[in-house]
Task: structure prediction
Amino acid sequence: MQLLERVERDIREQELLRQGSVLIVAVSGGADSTALLHMLHKLSEEWSWRLVVAHVNHMFRGDESLAEARQVEALARSLGLPCETAHIDIPGYLQSRAMNPQDASRERRYAFLLETAGRYGASAIVLAHHADDQAETVLLHLLRGSGGSGLSGMAFKRIEKNVELVRPLLRIYKTELLKYCSDNGLLFSEDSSNAERKYARNRIRLDALPYLRQFNPRISEALVRLAETNRAEDDYLQGVAAGWLQQHGRSIGPGYAFSREAFIKEHVALQRRVIKLILSYVFSGGGSVDFSAIERIRRAAAQQRKSNIHIEVPGAARMVRVYDEIRLERTTNKSKADYSYALSKNEALQAGILELPEAEGVLFYEVRSHEGVICRPKPASFLDEAQFALEQLEFPLVVRSRLAGDRMEVLGLNGSKKVKDIYIDDKVAPDVRSRLPLVCDASGRVLWIPGIRRSRHALPDGETGDQPRLILGFGARM
Result:
Protein backbone atom coordinates (compact mmCIF):
# COMPACT_ATOMS: atom_id res chain seq x y z
CA MET A 1 0.00 0.00 0.00
CA GLN A 2 1.35 3.42 -0.95
CA LEU A 3 2.18 5.89 1.81
CA LEU A 4 -0.61 8.27 0.79
CA GLU A 5 -3.15 5.42 0.94
CA ARG A 6 -1.97 4.43 4.42
CA VAL A 7 -2.31 7.98 5.70
CA GLU A 8 -5.81 8.28 4.24
CA ARG A 9 -6.74 4.91 5.75
CA ASP A 10 -5.69 6.14 9.21
CA ILE A 11 -7.65 9.35 8.71
CA ARG A 12 -10.77 7.29 7.94
CA GLU A 13 -10.29 4.57 10.57
CA GLN A 14 -9.42 6.98 13.38
CA GLU A 15 -12.03 9.54 12.20
CA LEU A 16 -9.38 12.24 12.34
CA LEU A 17 -10.72 14.73 9.81
CA ARG A 18 -14.15 15.52 8.42
CA GLN A 19 -15.27 16.15 4.87
CA GLY A 20 -15.36 19.82 3.88
CA SER A 21 -13.35 21.09 6.87
CA VAL A 22 -11.08 24.12 7.08
CA LEU A 23 -7.69 22.80 8.22
CA ILE A 24 -4.71 24.72 9.59
CA VAL A 25 -1.59 22.78 8.61
CA ALA A 26 1.42 23.51 10.83
CA VAL A 27 4.47 23.52 8.56
CA SER A 28 7.96 24.02 9.98
CA GLY A 29 9.70 23.50 6.65
CA GLY A 30 11.22 20.15 7.59
CA ALA A 31 10.66 16.91 5.71
CA ASP A 32 7.84 15.77 8.02
CA SER A 33 5.56 18.77 7.70
CA THR A 34 6.42 19.31 4.03
CA ALA A 35 5.33 15.74 3.23
CA LEU A 36 2.20 16.17 5.37
CA LEU A 37 1.15 19.33 3.55
CA HIS A 38 1.75 17.75 0.16
CA MET A 39 -0.32 14.66 1.06
CA LEU A 40 -3.21 16.69 2.48
CA HIS A 41 -3.19 18.84 -0.66
CA LYS A 42 -3.44 15.70 -2.82
CA LEU A 43 -6.37 14.43 -0.73
CA SER A 44 -8.13 17.79 -0.44
CA GLU A 45 -10.05 17.54 -3.71
CA GLU A 46 -11.74 14.28 -2.70
CA TRP A 47 -12.28 15.44 0.89
CA SER A 48 -13.24 19.03 -0.01
CA TRP A 49 -10.80 20.47 2.49
CA ARG A 50 -9.74 24.10 2.59
CA LEU A 51 -6.07 24.15 3.65
CA VAL A 52 -4.29 27.06 5.34
CA VAL A 53 -0.53 26.85 5.89
CA ALA A 54 0.77 28.19 9.22
CA HIS A 55 4.46 28.71 10.02
CA VAL A 56 6.22 30.12 13.10
CA ASN A 57 9.72 31.61 12.96
CA HIS A 58 10.99 31.40 16.55
CA MET A 59 13.99 33.57 15.64
CA PHE A 60 16.53 31.29 17.32
CA ARG A 61 18.73 30.72 14.26
CA GLY A 62 18.80 34.08 12.51
CA ASP A 63 19.12 33.80 8.73
CA GLU A 64 18.50 30.04 8.84
CA SER A 65 15.09 30.56 10.47
CA LEU A 66 14.22 33.32 8.02
CA ALA A 67 15.17 31.09 5.06
CA GLU A 68 12.87 28.36 6.40
CA ALA A 69 9.96 30.82 6.60
CA ARG A 70 10.53 31.92 3.00
CA GLN A 71 10.71 28.29 1.83
CA VAL A 72 7.38 27.47 3.51
CA GLU A 73 5.77 30.53 1.94
CA ALA A 74 7.09 29.49 -1.47
CA LEU A 75 5.72 25.97 -1.02
CA ALA A 76 2.30 27.36 -0.09
CA ARG A 77 2.30 29.59 -3.17
CA SER A 78 3.24 26.65 -5.42
CA LEU A 79 0.19 24.77 -4.10
CA GLY A 80 -2.08 27.78 -4.33
CA LEU A 81 -2.66 27.90 -0.56
CA PRO A 82 -2.82 30.84 1.86
CA CYS A 83 0.10 31.05 4.29
CA GLU A 84 0.12 32.67 7.72
CA THR A 85 3.59 33.33 9.13
CA ALA A 86 4.43 34.55 12.64
CA HIS A 87 7.87 35.92 13.57
CA ILE A 88 8.11 35.53 17.35
CA ASP A 89 11.19 36.66 19.26
CA ILE A 90 11.44 33.70 21.65
CA PRO A 91 14.98 34.65 22.88
CA GLY A 92 13.60 38.05 23.89
CA TYR A 93 10.49 36.45 25.36
CA LEU A 94 12.64 34.22 27.57
CA GLN A 95 14.52 37.12 29.13
CA SER A 96 11.56 37.97 31.35
CA ARG A 97 10.38 34.40 32.01
CA ALA A 98 11.80 31.37 33.80
CA MET A 99 10.98 28.87 31.04
CA ASN A 100 13.09 26.52 28.96
CA PRO A 101 13.30 27.42 25.25
CA GLN A 102 11.33 24.41 24.02
CA ASP A 103 8.41 25.04 26.40
CA ALA A 104 8.34 28.73 25.50
CA SER A 105 8.44 27.94 21.78
CA ARG A 106 5.63 25.42 22.10
CA GLU A 107 3.48 27.81 24.14
CA ARG A 108 3.77 30.67 21.65
CA ARG A 109 3.51 28.39 18.61
CA TYR A 110 0.28 26.78 19.78
CA ALA A 111 -1.15 30.18 20.73
CA PHE A 112 -0.52 31.35 17.16
CA LEU A 113 -1.98 28.18 15.63
CA LEU A 114 -5.13 28.45 17.76
CA GLU A 115 -5.51 32.15 16.95
CA THR A 116 -5.13 31.37 13.23
CA ALA A 117 -7.72 28.61 13.50
CA GLY A 118 -10.13 31.07 15.09
CA ARG A 119 -9.66 33.64 12.33
CA TYR A 120 -10.28 31.11 9.56
CA GLY A 121 -13.05 29.22 11.36
CA ALA A 122 -10.98 26.03 11.19
CA SER A 123 -12.15 22.86 12.93
CA ALA A 124 -8.68 21.30 13.19
CA ILE A 125 -4.97 22.01 13.35
CA VAL A 126 -2.99 19.25 11.61
CA LEU A 127 0.46 18.45 13.03
CA ALA A 128 3.29 16.41 11.50
CA HIS A 129 4.38 14.33 14.51
CA HIS A 130 5.31 10.88 13.24
CA ALA A 131 6.12 7.39 14.59
CA ASP A 132 9.73 8.22 15.49
CA ASP A 133 8.50 11.25 17.45
CA GLN A 134 6.07 8.93 19.20
CA ALA A 135 8.83 6.49 20.14
CA GLU A 136 10.96 9.33 21.53
CA THR A 137 8.00 10.63 23.54
CA VAL A 138 7.22 7.24 25.07
CA LEU A 139 10.86 6.60 26.01
CA LEU A 140 11.17 10.08 27.50
CA HIS A 141 8.03 9.52 29.59
CA LEU A 142 9.26 6.07 30.62
CA LEU A 143 12.54 7.53 31.90
CA ARG A 144 10.58 10.12 33.89
CA GLY A 145 8.48 7.41 35.56
CA SER A 146 5.17 8.11 33.81
CA GLY A 147 2.24 5.74 34.24
CA GLY A 148 -0.10 4.28 31.65
CA SER A 149 -1.32 7.64 30.37
CA GLY A 150 2.22 8.89 29.80
CA LEU A 151 3.19 5.69 28.04
CA SER A 152 0.25 6.22 25.68
CA GLY A 153 2.34 8.91 24.02
CA MET A 154 0.72 11.44 21.75
CA ALA A 155 -2.90 10.97 20.75
CA PHE A 156 -4.04 10.88 17.13
CA LYS A 157 -6.55 13.55 18.08
CA ARG A 158 -7.32 15.73 21.07
CA ILE A 159 -9.20 18.95 21.65
CA GLU A 160 -7.70 22.19 22.86
CA LYS A 161 -9.86 25.30 23.22
CA ASN A 162 -12.60 23.79 21.02
CA VAL A 163 -10.15 23.06 18.18
CA GLU A 164 -8.99 19.53 17.31
CA LEU A 165 -5.25 18.88 17.23
CA VAL A 166 -4.78 16.07 14.73
CA ARG A 167 -1.69 13.92 14.08
CA PRO A 168 -2.34 11.65 11.07
CA LEU A 169 1.32 10.49 10.73
CA LEU A 170 1.76 8.69 14.06
CA ARG A 171 2.11 5.32 12.28
CA ILE A 172 4.51 6.68 9.61
CA TYR A 173 8.28 6.65 10.14
CA LYS A 174 10.79 9.38 9.28
CA THR A 175 12.50 7.30 6.60
CA GLU A 176 9.17 6.93 4.80
CA LEU A 177 8.58 10.68 4.87
CA LEU A 178 12.07 11.38 3.55
CA LYS A 179 11.48 8.96 0.69
CA TYR A 180 8.10 10.60 -0.05
CA CYS A 181 9.80 14.00 -0.33
CA SER A 182 12.46 12.55 -2.60
CA ASP A 183 9.95 10.74 -4.81
CA ASN A 184 7.87 13.91 -5.21
CA GLY A 185 10.76 16.35 -5.65
CA LEU A 186 9.88 18.29 -2.50
CA LEU A 187 12.45 20.69 -1.04
CA PHE A 188 12.70 20.86 2.74
CA SER A 189 14.93 22.41 5.41
CA GLU A 190 17.18 20.74 7.98
CA ASP A 191 16.97 22.33 11.43
CA SER A 192 20.55 22.60 12.72
CA SER A 193 19.33 22.68 16.34
CA ASN A 194 18.19 19.05 15.99
CA ALA A 195 21.85 18.05 16.42
CA GLU A 196 22.30 19.93 19.72
CA ARG A 197 22.46 17.61 22.71
CA LYS A 198 21.44 20.25 25.23
CA TYR A 199 17.80 19.26 24.59
CA ALA A 200 16.55 16.06 26.28
CA ARG A 201 14.57 14.92 23.23
CA ASN A 202 17.65 15.26 21.02
CA ARG A 203 19.68 13.13 23.44
CA ILE A 204 16.94 10.48 23.32
CA ARG A 205 17.04 10.47 19.51
CA LEU A 206 20.82 10.74 19.06
CA ASP A 207 22.08 8.66 21.98
CA ALA A 208 19.48 6.60 23.85
CA LEU A 209 17.61 5.03 20.95
CA PRO A 210 20.76 4.09 18.96
CA TYR A 211 22.16 2.44 22.11
CA LEU A 212 18.93 0.49 22.74
CA ARG A 213 18.95 -0.80 19.17
CA GLN A 214 21.83 -3.04 20.25
CA PHE A 215 19.25 -4.96 22.29
CA ASN A 216 16.30 -4.57 19.93
CA PRO A 217 16.94 -3.31 16.41
CA ARG A 218 13.22 -2.49 16.13
CA ILE A 219 13.01 -0.55 19.41
CA SER A 220 11.12 2.35 17.82
CA GLU A 221 8.43 0.00 16.49
CA ALA A 222 8.19 -1.64 19.93
CA LEU A 223 7.70 1.73 21.63
CA VAL A 224 5.04 2.75 19.11
CA ARG A 225 3.17 -0.53 19.75
CA LEU A 226 3.45 0.13 23.49
CA ALA A 227 1.89 3.55 22.95
CA GLU A 228 -1.02 2.15 20.93
CA THR A 229 -1.69 -0.62 23.47
CA ASN A 230 -1.58 1.79 26.39
CA ARG A 231 -3.74 4.31 24.56
CA ALA A 232 -6.54 1.76 24.12
CA GLU A 233 -6.29 0.58 27.73
CA ASP A 234 -6.07 4.16 28.98
CA ASP A 235 -9.23 5.11 27.09
CA TYR A 236 -11.04 2.08 28.50
CA LEU A 237 -10.02 2.79 32.10
CA GLN A 238 -10.96 6.42 31.67
CA GLY A 239 -14.46 5.40 30.63
CA VAL A 240 -14.81 2.95 33.52
CA ALA A 241 -13.64 5.59 36.01
CA ALA A 242 -16.06 8.16 34.62
CA GLY A 243 -18.91 5.67 34.91
CA TRP A 244 -17.97 4.80 38.49
CA LEU A 245 -17.81 8.48 39.42
CA GLN A 246 -21.20 9.14 37.86
CA GLN A 247 -22.70 6.30 39.90
CA HIS A 248 -20.95 6.81 43.23
CA GLY A 249 -19.84 10.45 43.27
CA ARG A 250 -21.42 13.86 43.56
CA SER A 251 -20.15 17.20 42.39
CA ILE A 252 -19.03 19.68 45.06
CA GLY A 253 -18.09 22.67 42.93
CA PRO A 254 -14.54 22.25 41.60
CA GLY A 255 -14.25 18.65 42.75
CA TYR A 256 -16.13 15.52 43.78
CA ALA A 257 -17.16 13.63 46.91
CA PHE A 258 -17.68 9.88 47.04
CA SER A 259 -18.28 7.03 49.47
CA ARG A 260 -15.17 5.44 50.94
CA GLU A 261 -17.06 2.16 51.36
CA ALA A 262 -17.80 1.98 47.63
CA PHE A 263 -14.27 3.12 46.76
CA ILE A 264 -12.35 0.48 48.71
CA LYS A 265 -14.31 -2.33 47.05
CA GLU A 266 -12.72 -1.49 43.69
CA HIS A 267 -9.45 -2.74 42.23
CA VAL A 268 -6.46 -0.55 43.07
CA ALA A 269 -6.07 0.34 39.37
CA LEU A 270 -9.57 1.80 39.27
CA GLN A 271 -9.03 3.57 42.60
CA ARG A 272 -6.00 5.37 41.19
CA ARG A 273 -7.81 6.21 37.97
CA VAL A 274 -10.80 7.69 39.83
CA ILE A 275 -8.50 9.93 41.87
CA LYS A 276 -6.63 11.01 38.76
CA LEU A 277 -9.89 11.73 36.93
CA ILE A 278 -11.25 13.89 39.76
CA LEU A 279 -8.01 15.84 39.98
CA SER A 280 -8.15 16.47 36.25
CA TYR A 281 -11.57 18.07 36.84
CA VAL A 282 -10.23 20.06 39.79
CA PHE A 283 -7.29 21.40 37.82
CA SER A 284 -9.39 21.79 34.63
CA GLY A 285 -6.59 20.37 32.52
CA GLY A 286 -4.18 23.00 33.79
CA GLY A 287 -1.97 20.75 35.84
CA SER A 288 -0.89 17.22 36.50
CA VAL A 289 -0.39 15.15 39.63
CA ASP A 290 2.40 12.64 40.03
CA PHE A 291 1.98 9.05 41.12
CA SER A 292 3.17 9.66 44.68
CA ALA A 293 0.42 12.23 45.32
CA ILE A 294 -2.25 9.94 43.85
CA GLU A 295 -1.00 7.05 45.98
CA ARG A 296 -0.99 9.16 49.17
CA ILE A 297 -4.62 10.03 48.55
CA ARG A 298 -5.57 6.44 47.74
CA ARG A 299 -3.90 5.05 50.85
CA ALA A 300 -5.46 7.69 53.08
CA ALA A 301 -8.89 6.92 51.66
CA ALA A 302 -8.42 3.19 52.21
CA GLN A 303 -7.22 3.40 55.83
CA GLN A 304 -9.41 1.63 58.34
CA ARG A 305 -9.08 4.22 61.10
CA LYS A 306 -12.05 6.53 61.28
CA SER A 307 -10.37 9.84 62.11
CA ASN A 308 -10.73 12.75 59.72
CA ILE A 309 -7.81 13.26 57.31
CA HIS A 310 -6.64 16.28 55.30
CA ILE A 311 -4.02 15.99 52.54
CA GLU A 312 -2.80 18.96 50.54
CA VAL A 313 -2.17 18.19 46.87
CA PRO A 314 0.43 20.25 44.95
CA GLY A 315 -1.40 22.64 42.63
CA ALA A 316 -3.99 24.08 45.08
CA ALA A 317 -6.12 21.01 45.76
CA ARG A 318 -6.84 18.89 48.80
CA MET A 319 -8.23 15.55 49.86
CA VAL A 320 -10.53 15.53 52.90
CA ARG A 321 -11.81 12.36 54.52
CA VAL A 322 -14.74 12.93 56.88
CA TYR A 323 -16.04 9.68 58.33
CA ASP A 324 -17.12 7.63 55.28
CA GLU A 325 -16.98 10.46 52.74
CA ILE A 326 -13.93 11.30 50.63
CA ARG A 327 -13.65 14.73 49.05
CA LEU A 328 -11.21 15.90 46.41
CA GLU A 329 -11.59 19.61 45.81
CA ARG A 330 -9.79 22.79 44.94
CA THR A 331 -8.46 24.80 47.84
CA THR A 332 -8.81 28.54 48.17
CA ASN A 333 -6.99 31.14 50.19
CA LYS A 334 -10.21 32.35 51.75
CA SER A 335 -10.38 31.96 55.52
CA LYS A 336 -13.59 31.30 57.42
CA ALA A 337 -15.69 34.46 57.51
CA ASP A 338 -17.91 35.21 60.50
CA TYR A 339 -21.27 36.60 59.47
CA SER A 340 -24.52 37.82 61.00
CA TYR A 341 -27.80 38.96 59.39
CA ALA A 342 -30.94 40.31 61.11
CA LEU A 343 -34.54 39.51 60.15
CA SER A 344 -37.23 41.80 61.60
CA LYS A 345 -40.84 40.79 62.18
CA ASN A 346 -42.06 43.17 59.47
CA GLU A 347 -39.64 41.60 56.97
CA ALA A 348 -40.82 38.11 57.94
CA LEU A 349 -44.45 39.10 57.36
CA GLN A 350 -43.60 40.34 53.85
CA ALA A 351 -41.91 37.06 52.95
CA GLY A 352 -38.77 36.80 50.85
CA ILE A 353 -35.26 35.41 50.57
CA LEU A 354 -32.19 36.33 52.61
CA GLU A 355 -28.92 35.84 50.75
CA LEU A 356 -26.25 34.05 52.80
CA PRO A 357 -23.12 34.06 50.59
CA GLU A 358 -20.83 32.87 53.39
CA ALA A 359 -23.10 29.85 53.87
CA GLU A 360 -23.27 29.29 50.10
CA GLY A 361 -27.07 29.35 50.35
CA VAL A 362 -30.23 31.38 50.93
CA LEU A 363 -32.77 31.54 53.75
CA PHE A 364 -36.38 31.53 52.56
CA TYR A 365 -39.07 32.92 54.91
CA GLU A 366 -42.84 33.30 54.85
CA VAL A 367 -45.82 33.37 57.25
CA ARG A 368 -48.77 30.99 57.00
CA SER A 369 -52.10 31.26 58.80
CA HIS A 370 -55.53 29.69 58.67
CA GLU A 371 -56.06 31.62 55.43
CA GLY A 372 -53.25 29.64 53.84
CA VAL A 373 -49.97 30.70 52.42
CA ILE A 374 -49.77 34.46 52.03
CA CYS A 375 -46.59 34.78 49.99
CA ARG A 376 -44.82 33.58 46.87
CA PRO A 377 -44.00 29.86 46.44
CA LYS A 378 -40.73 28.29 47.60
CA PRO A 379 -37.77 28.39 45.22
CA ALA A 380 -36.78 25.21 43.40
CA SER A 381 -33.54 24.96 45.39
CA PHE A 382 -35.42 24.79 48.72
CA LEU A 383 -33.87 21.93 50.70
CA ASP A 384 -34.96 22.00 54.33
CA GLU A 385 -37.55 23.81 56.45
CA ALA A 386 -38.68 24.44 60.01
CA GLN A 387 -41.89 26.00 61.40
CA PHE A 388 -42.21 28.29 64.41
CA ALA A 389 -45.13 29.87 66.30
CA LEU A 390 -44.79 33.47 65.14
CA GLU A 391 -46.06 35.14 68.35
CA GLN A 392 -43.67 33.14 70.54
CA LEU A 393 -40.57 34.40 68.73
CA GLU A 394 -38.41 37.27 70.03
CA PHE A 395 -37.54 39.47 67.03
CA PRO A 396 -35.35 40.40 65.35
CA LEU A 397 -34.12 36.95 64.46
CA VAL A 398 -30.41 36.65 63.81
CA VAL A 399 -28.91 34.35 61.18
CA ARG A 400 -25.21 33.91 61.86
CA SER A 401 -22.16 31.67 61.86
CA ARG A 402 -21.40 29.49 64.85
CA LEU A 403 -19.65 31.03 67.85
CA ALA A 404 -17.51 29.28 70.45
CA GLY A 405 -19.67 27.99 73.28
CA ASP A 406 -22.96 27.96 71.36
CA ARG A 407 -25.54 25.66 72.94
CA MET A 408 -29.00 24.51 71.84
CA GLU A 409 -32.02 23.14 73.68
CA VAL A 410 -32.67 20.38 71.18
CA LEU A 411 -36.22 19.22 70.55
CA GLY A 412 -36.69 15.84 72.24
CA LEU A 413 -33.80 16.22 74.69
CA ASN A 414 -33.64 17.51 78.25
CA GLY A 415 -31.35 20.42 78.97
CA SER A 416 -29.01 21.89 76.37
CA LYS A 417 -26.21 20.55 74.21
CA LYS A 418 -23.14 22.17 72.68
CA VAL A 419 -23.56 22.89 68.98
CA LYS A 420 -20.05 21.54 68.50
CA ASP A 421 -21.13 18.19 70.00
CA ILE A 422 -24.25 18.14 67.81
CA TYR A 423 -22.03 18.47 64.75
CA ILE A 424 -19.74 15.69 65.94
CA ASP A 425 -22.63 13.34 66.73
CA ASP A 426 -24.24 14.04 63.35
CA LYS A 427 -20.89 13.57 61.55
CA VAL A 428 -20.99 17.03 59.99
CA ALA A 429 -17.76 17.71 58.08
CA PRO A 430 -15.51 20.38 59.67
CA ASP A 431 -15.52 22.60 56.58
CA VAL A 432 -19.34 22.42 56.45
CA ARG A 433 -19.61 23.39 60.13
CA SER A 434 -17.95 26.72 59.43
CA ARG A 435 -20.53 27.56 56.75
CA LEU A 436 -23.79 26.32 58.28
CA PRO A 437 -26.06 29.14 59.51
CA LEU A 438 -27.58 29.21 62.98
CA VAL A 439 -31.01 30.89 63.33
CA CYS A 440 -31.25 32.60 66.73
CA ASP A 441 -33.81 34.85 68.43
CA ALA A 442 -33.17 38.31 69.87
CA SER A 443 -32.01 36.85 73.17
CA GLY A 444 -29.36 34.72 71.46
CA ARG A 445 -31.22 31.41 71.84
CA VAL A 446 -30.38 29.00 68.99
CA LEU A 447 -33.67 28.03 67.34
CA TRP A 448 -32.60 26.03 64.29
CA ILE A 449 -29.59 24.63 62.46
CA PRO A 450 -30.82 23.88 58.92
CA GLY A 451 -30.68 20.23 58.06
CA ILE A 452 -29.34 19.32 61.51
CA ARG A 453 -31.51 20.10 64.55
CA ARG A 454 -34.45 22.22 65.72
CA SER A 455 -34.87 23.60 69.23
CA ARG A 456 -37.92 22.97 71.39
CA HIS A 457 -38.79 26.71 71.50
CA ALA A 458 -41.72 28.34 69.66
CA LEU A 459 -43.29 25.06 68.62
CA PRO A 460 -46.53 25.57 66.65
CA ASP A 461 -49.67 24.25 68.34
CA GLY A 462 -50.79 21.37 66.16
CA GLU A 463 -54.36 21.60 67.49
CA THR A 464 -54.84 25.28 66.62
CA GLY A 465 -55.06 25.76 62.87
CA ASP A 466 -55.30 29.56 62.90
CA GLN A 467 -52.01 30.18 64.73
CA PRO A 468 -49.63 32.16 62.43
CA ARG A 469 -46.49 30.22 61.67
CA LEU A 470 -43.13 31.43 60.45
CA ILE A 471 -41.80 29.02 57.85
CA LEU A 472 -38.03 29.08 57.35
CA GLY A 473 -36.23 27.18 54.64
CA PHE A 474 -32.57 26.86 53.69
CA GLY A 475 -31.39 25.99 50.20
CA ALA A 476 -28.67 26.39 47.61
CA ARG A 477 -28.07 29.81 46.09
CA MET A 478 -30.08 30.38 42.91
About this structure: Confidence is low (pLDDT under 50) at residues 371-383. The two ends are 61 Å apart (CA to CA).
